[in-house]
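At this stage, I put together a protein sequence along with its fold in C-alpha cell form, as given directly below:
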Amino acid sequence: MNILNIIASQIKAALDTQIEAALICDLNTNQILLANKKACQNLGFTTSEICNSHLDIIFPKNFKPIQFDKNEKNSKELRQFLKKTGDSFIALTKNKILSIKNKNYQIISFKSLSNLAELSESDKSPDKEHIKFSEKLFTISQKITNVDEDMFYKNMVYGLADVFKVRWAMICLLSSGGKEAKILSLWDQTKFQSELVYKLKGTPCEKVKQTKASFYCEKNLTKYFPKDFLAIQWGVESYLGIPIVSKTNEIMGQLAVMDDKLIKKEKRIECIAIMQYFSNRIAKEIVLNNFKITTQKKEISNNRIKLTSQSKPFTKRELQVLDHVLSGLASSSIARKLSVTLPTIKFHLKNIYNKLGVNGRNGLLKAISNLG
C-alpha cells in the first residue's frame, strides 16, 4: 500500500466517526493531497481542482483561526472557508497530525456550524433566548443586503447589538496615521451615532490595532484603560473588538461590541466568529465607498471649476459651501459640517447664487445638468 492509499484510509476512518468533510495536506508545504466528496461539495471544487492545490485557495489570509481545546489531542478551531464562487462560510474544524514513514500530514475535518452546542465553554443549560448561529448570520445578512452606504453601517451595528443583546456595537475607520479612529456608525441602545473621532492611545481599540487580532475584556474595562475617556463617559464594562483587514493585510478599521454588563466567556467564540465573518464584508464596503468618494470629489471639483470659471471670485468659505451643495448635503447638514449656524450658511448660499446668476438650489442643479 502506497502513502496516498494509507492517507486515504485515514480520511475514511475520520469519516466513519461522523465527521462531515475532510481533506489532508502536507504539513510542511500546505499542499492539499486529498479531499473527500463532501469537502469538495461544500467548497465547490472538483477533486482534480482541489488536490495538489495550496491551502490558501480555501483559507482567507485575513481571517485568524479561533482556537480552543488546545490541550486536546485533536484540537478544535473555527475557520473561515472560501468557496470557489468567492463566497465564504464559518466551520468548526478538527486538526489531526499524522506521521507516516517519517513525514507529517495534517487531516483537517470540518462541518458547518448549525448550532453552538459543541462550542459552549461552561454553560450547558438550555437557554430560552438562544438563537442558532446560522440564524444569527442570516438575520444580520438580511439587514445589510441591497442597502446604501449609510444604512449598511447602521444595519450592521444594529444587527450585531440585537443578536448579541449588547448595548453598543461600533464600526470605526482608522486615520491614515493610525493614531485616531473615526466612528462610521455606532448603535447605543436607542440611537445611532457617527462622525465621532477619538484617539486610539490608551483604548482597547489600540490593542486590536497593535496585535492585528481580536481583543476581549470580560469586565472592569475602565480599570484597565483609565485613559479611555469615551468608555468612562459611557460606562462600558465589557468589550470585544476585532480588526477589519484589507486584502493586503493592512488594518483599515475595527468592529466592536460593548456592554455595561458582562459579555460572558461562553459568548466570546460565537461573537468573534460572526464578527470576523462580517468584517470581510465591511472591508469591501469601505473600499467601495472610498472609491465612490474619490470619484465624487473629482466630479464635484470639475463641476465647481466649470461653474465658477466665468463668475466673480469666490471666498474660501463660499467654495467649501458650494462643494457641500454639489455633494448633495442639505443646508442644515452643511452647517453641522462646518460648525457654523444655519443663517451663516444661508448667507453664503445667497452670495453663491448671485455670483453664479442662478435662482436658488434648483437653479444651481439645473446649471450643473447643462454643463454636459
Remarks:
- The chain has 13 helices and 13 strands.
- The first strand starts at residue 21 and ends at 26.
- The two ends are 75 Å apart (CA to CA).
